[in-house]
Amino acid sequence: MDRSANLDTEELKMTREQYILATQQNSLPRTEHPQFYPVGIYGWRKRCLYFFVLLLLVTMIVNLAMTIWILKVMNFTVDGMGNLRVTKKGIRLEGISEFLLPLYVKEIHSRKDSPLVLQSDRNVTVNARNHMGQLTGQLTVGTEGAVFGHSVETPHIRAEPSQDLKLESPTRSLVMEAPRGVQVNAAAGDLKATCRKELHLQSTEGEIFLNADTIRLGNLPVGSFSSSSPSSSAPRQTIYELCICPSGKLYLSPAGASSTCQSSSNICLWS
Description:
Elements: H1 2-27, H2 44-73, E1 80-81, E2 84-86, E3 91-93, E4 124-129, E5 135-142, E6 145-148, E7 240-244, E8 250-254
Antiparallel strand pairs: 1-2, 2-3, 4-5, 5-6, 7-8
């Protein structure tokens, strides 16, 4: 009995407290328009934000326009840029091109039926180097012609039409070699060989053959001998005999009824 009485008392207290709380809430003043607090960016901050967004948009448009312009001017394609094309065999360059720095390539060739032109305001120099970077060959083409730094191997050398062909070595010797012979031919002109000191014609196993209607040897020394019967009224000597010294030197001796080379051989002592 006492326990049930205590439970009823507690329930009564709880009901009373709930009633008091409900009465107090109903007695509070109610506002007809609730207050709202603004959340966000307003004022000068908002204007600055819009300005930066607009500036970023203008920058993106300008960059896009410049990119499209560069692609159009440089002629960028999936195969290359401008006259430069990337193929499976390498790089193909068409038209006139200008290189400001050294060009290192394995092979340069032109299109079929088209010449390959290398042009420079000064000289065009082509160097060949070995795997250690040492210079093994050099070709320089300038206003005075082609200058070769080392030996040259070619099947054909010719000059331009109506122009002379000149092979010159200013400080060293000029050597022409061929296993089957060297042929020098002037079809419609003269062949002249000039040297400052000595001109040697040598054949180790064959002979030197001179075939012409007339063979002239100018500026040969003339040997002299004392005649046994001098005469002041003797005619002028116009016929000479060609003689040769043991050293190979040629000289002329006044012709007589028989050979006079032995009589005028004293000239051989001067050689």
